[in-house]
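Below is a filled-in request sheet from our internal design queue. Each sheet records the structural input a requester submitted and the sequence that came back. We keep these sheets so that new team members can see what a complete request looks like end to end.

REQUESTER: design group, bay 2
PRIORITY: normal
MODE: inverse folding
CHAIN LENGTH: 322
BACKBONE (tokenized):
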């Protein structure tokens, strides 16, 4: 395989893929970056030209870890060259572009996998199992908190930089596309780049979701809360050990109260979560898909629903109410 883009995040992907597969090429437009990494991966050739990479007939798969606006064009070129592709999130900035990539991959029988890291987090996998097995009862609402006084981006707003993570989890847990999305936010620090964004999503089933995304906040929060009719669950990535907590609490209408609502508060417990690195699991999943194991179309479709929702949320964000 090959990797295009070896920046701040790309180097983590590179480390994992180099351990799991045969790394043939490292490609980056920045020659200094290449020189930094080339000695660490002597089996790989270094190049600033993507053509060198795509012309290699021995190559099966390419990882794209470049800035977001370049993803669609690069992924398209990789698929056109007949290679499987892993693209960092989000693989495109428009739904129509992502649809085109999905169709291209499907027509050619190639894997197109978006880098939705959180979907490989054992804590999120646990939430998914709690939802799918019906342990929580009917899921009513989900909300995500991704806040911090953190890295202040000047090109990408909080929706695209932070929201893509929570959105991928919400859509994965509910397995449904929203019928209504609304986003409100404001750019306080850099004109045109929203630092604080509140998103609301409503689904055809009636379930609702909310996301608070901000790098202008006193709390460092990385949390997803799922409210079910029978139980409630929280995935808190700031917790070192108890990443998932299940609360056996819910409203109920006992017959003796003749229809009046009461609340039941039972025990809370933290299921055991494996301590495996999500990035490692993500890379292994891509390689399994390349080998023909697993549902490659599901991976591409997960990416498509996220890009569509992001595009609609961005349009809503730009609609300023007078
Ligand atoms: N999954 C996660 O948790 C996570 C975290 C951080 C970043 N990311 C994603 O990873 C991607 C890369 O982020 P980063 O922080 O490494 O960015 P970066 O700016 O540090 O690195 C990007 C690299 O790509 C190179 N590059 C740019 N255009 C190129 C091209 N056309 N061909 C070849 N190389 C090119 C640049 O020279 C640079 O070295 C982004 O899409 C970002 O959204 C994901």
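RETURNED SEQUENCE:
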């Amino acid at each position: 395989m090959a990797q295009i883009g070896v920046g701040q995040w790309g180097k983590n992907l590179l480390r994992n893929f180099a351990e799991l597969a045969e790394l043939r090429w490292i490609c980056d437009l920045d020659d200094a970056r290449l020189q930094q990494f080339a000695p660490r991966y002597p089996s790989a050739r270094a190049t600033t030209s993507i053509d060198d990479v795509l012309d290699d007939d021995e190559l099966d798969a390419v990882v794209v870890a470049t800035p977001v606006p370049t993803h669609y064009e690069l992924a398209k070129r990789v698929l056109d060259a007949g290679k499987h592709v892993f693209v960092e999130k989000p693989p495109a900035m428009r739904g129509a572009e992502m649809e085109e990539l999905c169709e291209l991959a499907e027509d050619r029988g190639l894997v197109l996998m978006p880098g939705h890291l959180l979907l490989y987090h054992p804590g999120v996998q646990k939430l998914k199992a709690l939802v799918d097995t019906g342990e929580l009862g009917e899921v009513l609402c989900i909300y995500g908190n991704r806040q911090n006084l953190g890295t202040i981006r000047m090109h990408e707003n909080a929706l695209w930089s932070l929201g893509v993570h929570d959105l991928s989890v919400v859509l994965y847990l509910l397995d449904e596309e929203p019928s209504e999305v609304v986003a409100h936010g404001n750019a306080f620090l850099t004109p045109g780049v929203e630092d604080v964004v509140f998103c609301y999503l409503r689904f055809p089933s009636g379930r609702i979701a909310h996301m608070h995304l901000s790098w202008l906040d006193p709390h460092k929060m990385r949390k997803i809360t799922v409210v079910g009719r029978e139980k409630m669950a929280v995935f808190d990535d700031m917790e070192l050990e108890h990443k998932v907590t299940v609360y056996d609490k819910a409203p109920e209408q006992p017959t003796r109260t003749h229809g009046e609502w009461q609340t039941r508060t039972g025990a809370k417990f933290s299921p055991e979560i494996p301590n495996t690195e999500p990035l490692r699991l993500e890379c292994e999943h891509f390689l399994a898909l390349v080998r023909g194991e697993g549902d490659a179309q599901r991976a591409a479709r997960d990416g498509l629903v996220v890009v569509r929702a992001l595009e609609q949320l961005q349009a809503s964000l730009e609609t300023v109410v007078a």
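SHEET NOTES:
- The chain has a mean pLDDT of 96.
- The two ends are 52 Å apart (CA to CA).
FILED BY: M.R.
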